[in-house]
Design a protein that fits this description.
Layout lengths: L3 E11 L6 E11 L3 E5 L6 H8 L7 E6 L2 E2 L5 H7 L3 E4 L11 H12 L5 H14 L16 H13 L5 E5 L7 H17 L4 E5 L3 H7 L2 E6 L2 E6 L1 H6 L3 H12 L2
Parallel strand pairs: 3-8, 3-9, 6-7, 7-8
Antiparallel strand pairs: 1-2, 1-4, 4-5, 9-10
Helix pairs in contact: 3-4, 3-5, 4-5, 5-6
Bound molecules: adenosine-5'-diphosphate and magnesium ion.
């Protein structure tokens, strides 16, 4: 097994047939089992990069390997199946409004674990909800009847339903108040530890959190990797843009 679970080789992406490249040749290796944070100014291609890791976008050139498989070799059906290996949490928890907390978490199991009995699915959903710290008295409620923090927990439990090998977070704390932000950041670390070796990749605007919780940090700038390394590498960096970004980001916390 490779020491990396996600590898990108010279990935370029343009949406307009080749004039403007959003990703301008990304080379990146994400260590298996690590928690990696992707940082950078807004509009530099972080979300587009995540979508390549998920196989939601195909590169214009270059390739993306995940868990040893070349995503470019898969057709759309195979990619859809392959995505069972991922748990994804975006900025909005994107819960189904008309389903209860429990039904939301059971949804991926209903889709992808059809062979399981209803009891088994309920049991798994309970376990995941328990893992993210949601009490049983809330399981029958609709998303609108629970707090924002509980909605995040539910979204995370749903992301964990299929025991993903890769967890992807895109700005999970953007727009949250500081207390909720800390709770979600801690939850991501806890989840990472409890996941039993999953690889977590998180885009974050919250630098303090990224430096506190991530094993590795990748800074993108204008569609290129500006620096990739540990928090220490970032604090020691002589790259002007890195220094500016780190100082500015840390001061705001
Ligand atoms: N589907 C798309 N079609 C065209 N342009 C896109 C698309 N998705 C993203 N972009 C452009 O790519 C650039 C990077 O976007 P994004 O990855 O969302 O930035 P961020 O680093 O803030 O997450 C932006 O200029 C955005 O407008
Ligand atoms: Mg984004």
């Amino acid at each position: 097994m490779s020491e990396y679970s996600i590898e990108l080789h010279d990935v370029k992406k343009s949406f307009d047939g080749g004039k403007d490249f959003v990703l301008k040749g990304i080379d990146l290796k994400i260590h298996r089992g690590s928690l990696t944070a992707i940082i950078g100014f807004s509009g530099t291609g972080k979300s587009v990069l995540l979508k390549h890791m998920l196989g939601l976008y195909r590169p214009t050139s270059g390739d993306v390997h995940v868990l040893g498989s070349d995503l470019s070799q898969m057709d759309d059906n195979e990619l859809t199946q392959f995505r069972c290996k991922y748990g994804v949490l975006f900025q909005s928890a994107a819960l189904f409004d008309d389903m209860t907390v429990l039904e939301n978490v059971m949804f991926p199991l209903d889709e992808h674990r059809r062979q399981l009995s209803l009891e088994a699915k309920i049991q798994i959903a309970h376990k995941k909800l328990n893992m993210v710290g949601l009490e049983e008295k809330h399981y029958g409620k609709l998303p609108s009847q629970i707090s924002g923090g509980m909605q995040k927990r539910t979204g995370l439990a749903r992301a964990l339903a299929l025991d993903p090998e890769i967890l992807i977070y895109d700005e999970p704390t953007t727009g949250l108040d500081p207390i909720l932000t800390e709770m979600v950041d801690n939850l991501i670390v806890e989840t990472h530890k409890l996941s039993g070796g999953a690889t977590s990749v998180m885009v974050s605007h919250d630098l303090a959190a990224a430096f506190r919780i991530a094993d590795f940090i990748v800074m993108l700038d204008a569609g290129k990797v500006l620096l990739s390394g540990t928090a220490d590498d970032f604090f020691k960096s002589e790259i002007e843009l890195v220094k500016r970004f780190v100082n500015k980001g840390m001061k705001h916390q």
